[in-house]
Amino acid sequence: MRLTVGELAKRSGLTVRTLHHYDAIGLLRPSSRSDAGYRLYGQADIERLHRIQALRQLGLALADIGQALSGTQPPLAEVVDRQIAQLDRDLADAARLRERLVHLRAQLTSGQSPDLADWLDTLELMTMYEKYFTPEELKALPLHTDPDVLPAWSALVTAMQSAMDRGATPDDADAQQLALQWMEMVGRGTGNNPAFLLRLRTMTEDEPGMRERSGITPALERFVEESMVSARLAIFARYLDEHEMQRMRQHYGKQMYTWPELIAELRNALADGVPTHDPDVQALAQRWMAMFREYAGDDPATHAKIREAYAREQDLRSGSAVDDALLTYVREAATSAMARPH
């Protein structure tokens, strides 16, 4: 049996674009092509794809996977055994959680008050994070692994709520300073991973108890967002004239939650080694430039001032996961897109 790229994408849960990229970088090349030139994948190709996905689940980058598969490869049965072992560990965790919940229920039903150790053990296992992150991702999520992050978050939430309760506005210096600290904590808590930030936001929206546990009410969230925008506009005002600031005040911050998704896509493409002449990367770069121009306008002189501000002011970049490598990647892709014949 041979599968076309579309059939393999559907059966494997990957996208056609991902399979094309694997082909382009030599990670998974189809063993044959049809008379019409379409890619055809056979048994050996599908076995190799299984190895690739197993190594991806272990957190390896594509370049490292290519090197790993270029040497002596373990039998496919051994790869499957490792995945089964991981599933067994996951099932054991679930069984342990069930056992502790049954124990707690028995204590509560009999009128006993479970001791603190029982509650803490159960709470540790009853983590909703596992619904949104893989075990490997949780290991890379400081909010989940760093014992200092949650207390720091809690203190910051309390301080921000106190500022709002005493009538502070987003234009007040203390609210702005707290909002900038909030963005630093976003970067610290997510490991500067915008994909993690998006999933945490989804978890906050979808899990009824999440806001209650964190103390981040919708009103507080809006106050933080407005204070952060005001704080950053105050920084931009050091670099831009009044005419330029009028546009900034009108548009900056309107796509606050669109940027992380775009940044995450481009970071993934950069990490996977997708070249800047790739049409999909160029499309992402063009989206980036369109969103930038929405608040920056079309004047190159204004663009230069804003880029200087970003380069000099850490508070404009904190929590964004944008570094020099990503900016260079975006600029090269955007330039390549402009030079491409239409």
From TrEMBL:
PROSITE patterns attached to this UniProt entry: HTH_MERR_1, HTH_MERR_2
Pfam families referenced in this protein's UniProt entry, alphabetically: MerR_1, TipAS
SMART domains: HTH_MERR
UniProt keyword terms in alphabetical order: DNA-binding
CDD domains from the UniProt entry: HTH_NolA-AlbR
Domain HTH merR-type residues, every copy: 1-71
Keyword ATP-binding: no
Name of the featured protein: MerR family transcriptional regulator
Phylogenetic classification of the source organism: Bacteria, Pseudomonadati, Pseudomonadota, Gammaproteobacteria, Lysobacterales
